[in-house]
Amino acid sequence: MASEIGATETASSEPQARHVVYCGVCTLPPEYCEFGGTAKKCKEWLEMNHADLHEKLYSEEAVAATLSTLSLEAQKRAAKDSQKKEAKAAAAEAKAAETKAQAQILIKRVERNKRKYVTAVSGLEAHGMDLKKVAKEWGKKFATGSSVTKTASGGEEVVVQGDNSDEIFDWVVDVAGVPEANVDCIEDKKKKGA
Description:
By secondary structure, the chain is α+β, with helices and mostly antiparallel strands. It has helices at 2-13, 39-49, 51-58, 60-68, 72-102, 131-142, 165-174; strands at 105-111, 117-122, 146-150, 156-161, 183-188. The chain is elongated. 12% of the residues are buried.
């Protein structure tokens, strides 16, 4: 009987594992999201997924209690820093949206031999697509070989065997949601040797 009591006491005195919530945006604990570059998105994610924790961290009482511990100069600096961070995050979002809107996707049909073609597609990464996944999907969809290759300019492109330029154009516009104005089809003839 005494051994049973001793066993339960040692089991309960051992440290228990803590459940820690991690942000779905920046992967930090929510208490540290303000130090990342995506504080606004993190705050929205926390409000949607963990309303109780959002209330604990971002309620008016919690913010007022945190600010009351600071001196007046520190409060002014904190307010100024938070405004700078918000402005910087908004500018980064606007810049990313602008570059995505201006990014061009080039679909080139390149002649290999007399009647053999390959289709090379570049500019997909600017629209947030994973090139390896796209190459694999196109390989399955068109029943051909496809791969990601490096270009001479240092970028990467997806090369698909066969003339699939029309089907790829339709896929990029319909599935990926890229505007038609941002997609160009080019036919590239192989230069004959001297």
